[in-house]
Amino acid sequence: MHWDLEHSFSIIVFELGTQQENVDNSRKDHLNWSRIIQNINQLIENHKEQIILGEWGTKLVLLHSILEGICSLGTKDTDNYLTKTIAEVSRIIGQYTQQCYIGVGGFCQGISNLQQSYQEAKEAVKVAKLTNSCDKAFYYDELGIYRLLHKISSEELHKFVNDTLLPLIEYDQQHKTELVKTLDAYFANNGNLRALAKDLFVHYNTVLYRMERIQSILDVDLNNRDIRLNIEVALKIYSS
After folding, report:
1. What pLDDT is stored for residue 163 in this prediction?
2. Are 15 and 126 in contact (CB under 8 A)?
3. Is 227 left (phi over 0), alpha (psi -120 to 50) or beta?
4. How does DSSP assign the chain, residue by residue?
5. Backbone dihedral angles phi then psi of residue 62, each to the nearest 5 degrees
6. Is residue 100 within 8 Å of 134, Cβ to Cβ?
7. What is the pLDDT of residue 68?
8. What is the reported pLDDT for 73?
9. Residue 140: which of 232, 7, 20, 12 has the closest Cα?
10. Residue 6's pLDDT is what?
């Protein structure tokens, strides 16, 4: 195929949602799958980059070459380089199915290292499914703490959220308030109360009251670094 096997590559995994409720839906899924494969192969033929399409269950796997010099520029440049292909394939898939989870492995040098990029892409897909994020590409190198969270059982994650946030969640439900949202915005604004007030379009004194109320309900001191870490992680899980 005239490929340079020492080239740089990245693996992109698209996991499609299917409907298997009855025979008609199963036949429709099979027909849609065939059309998706045909259209993606046509896209690949028109692409200037070297790309190979593979199938595995409900997954479509792209082996995507990386132009020389792109990798040396940094992760962001590699991600941007792959964005066009991901968008084009996503558009094709979106014509036939409502669900598609996308994971992108880190770039690797030579085909002997493809397995690592493939495993990373699958890990990224798991995070996409964990956060119920359809049609959004998750890059393994940018997963951060989600690299760890998705390896923990859903039961344990649920328990951690309850142990950390349940009193506040229940308070919001009972009083029709949005203190969980306020707390999340507090972290998003790096604890800056004036920025938080601006972000929530409320008076500064209102923010002061809400933060005092939050700490009282949870019986915590947000000046404690470990407590802040636990709460922020719990919020990430809860919002997922």
Report:
1. 96
2. no
3. alpha
4. ----TTSEEEEEEEEEP---SSHHHHHHHHHHHHHHHHHHHHHHHH-SS-EEEEEETTEEEEEEEE-TTHHHH-HHHHHHHHHHHHHHHHHHHHTT-S-EEEEEPPPEESGGGHHHHHHHHHHHHHHHHHTT-TT-EEEGGG-TTHHHHTTS-HHHHHHHHHHHHHHHHHHHHHHT--HHHHHHHHHHTTT-HHHHHHHHT--HHHHHHHHHHHHHHHT--TTSHHHHHHHHHHHHHHH-
5. -105, 125
6. yes
7. 64
8. 43
9. 12
10. 75
Are 116 and 105 spatial neighbours (Cβ–Cβ below 8 Å)? Answer: yes
Measured distance CA(222)–CA(228) in Å, rounded: 6
Q: Is the Cβ–Cβ distance between 137 and 102 less than 8 Å?
A: yes
The single residue listed with the structure tokens 């099979």 is: 30
Residue ranges of the chain with per-residue pLDDT less than 50: 20-23, 72-73
Q: What angle do CA 47, 51, 53 make, to 5 degrees?
A: 115
| Inter-residue contact 66 to 8 (CB < 8 Å) | yes
Q: pTM score > 0.90 for this model?
A: no
pLDDT at 76: 52
Question: Is the backbone of residue 219 left (phi > 0), alpha (psi -120 to 50) or beta?
Answer: left
Strand partners, 101: 15
